[in-house]
Amino acid sequence: MQDVMERTLAPRPEHVPAELVRDFDLYDIPGAAEDIQAAYRAIQQASPDIFWTPHNGGHWVATRGEDIVEMQRDYNRFSHQHIVLPPMPDAPRQIPLEMDPPEHARYRRPLMQALLPSIVSELESKVRQVAIDAVERLLPRGECEFVEDFAKVLPIHVFLELVELPLDDKAYLLALAEDSVRGRDAETRGRSQQLMGAYLLPWIRARREMPGNDLLSKLVNVDIGGERISEAEATSYATLVLFGGLDTVAGMIAFIARFLAQNPEQRRQLVERLDDDAFVKNAIEEMVRRHGLANTARVIASDFDYKGVSFRAGDRILPANLFVGVDDRINPDPLVVDFSREKPVHAAFGNGAHACPGAVLARREIRIFLQEWLSRIPDFRIKPGTRPVLATGMVNGVLRLELVWP
């Protein structure tokens, strides 16, 4: 049964003017079945820069890039202490994402050190070989369901190797990740986190007893002030990182594949210039800009006015990062993908203290996907009679994408 907050609309608080109320539900956005980011763009164009919605417990929404970037950076006023909508009051804190500095930095450090550019470079040959094997396996078939057959193969294989967990467990873990980030009700999302914690617990205990050099060992043995974090904290930390590693890169790769399948001109540009590193790098930033996917809410830490809007301590706000990429005040013609755009501006990996520590690895995986797929399958399109299946939520995604090629 769905959470009460999700089945009913929250009453408008006294400090929220009636003219700032809009009907916005991030799990049910008009037009999202065709193009999630364009649907967000339509909301951005039709709404005040900041509005309030009664859905999902009642919360503010910031729609413009300038405000969103400021909110992502200003953790003193826009706290990370609860990032999920609707609120999950009984859920354990997601470490380190639901922490603010300086506490946050101590937990984040081992994750940053494990994903440094130099370490990601060492992984590149393995990532590339996984991509090559996957494409070579699909090539003779002339078709595939891209999400299951490739998008989830590449990043998940790499990530499970980083944490040294069995690749055979992939299907089970992916199903949990799907429920966690796009489950429509708090019960589904909470259950997925409990099941992931239960799955991880034996591995966590083993790595705490005999740590190795893998990423999981580093996460579950974090030292804070001379003491190792508790088993419960270690489970929360590992659960969050695993969900992030299993879902977000796969989602971005699938959005990009969908775009290239539907836009042969841009696809040919990439095919012709795959060896031009600067061009490919800019093209990746432009496609990431156009296809933002992750959402994290914030909690207003104290009473204050912001650009004429009165916030109160405890209010929740969604500064959805994909709004930055589709904001015409920052990126002219934002729905158009232009590989020659001089400086694609986006917040797909966040900003400030909570910027995504896996951004370097994500960009590397996207580049390898483009190089290895397009060099072997340069001409592909969406299978006639099918349509991509898209989903909105705390992390937007592509659930199904059927492709064919000659």
TrEMBL record:
The keyword Metal-binding applies. PROSITE patterns: CYTOCHROME_P450. Keywords: Heme, Iron, Metal-binding, Monooxygenase, Oxidoreductase. CDD domains: P450cam-like. Gene3D superfamilies: Cytochrome P450. The keyword Iron applies. GO terms for molecular function: heme binding; iron ion binding; monooxygenase activity; oxidoreductase activity, acting on paired donors, with incorporation or reduction of molecular oxygen. Belongs to the cytochrome P450 family. This is Cytochrome P450. The lineage of its organism: Bacteria, Pseudomonadati, Pseudomonadota, Alphaproteobacteria, Sphingomonadales.
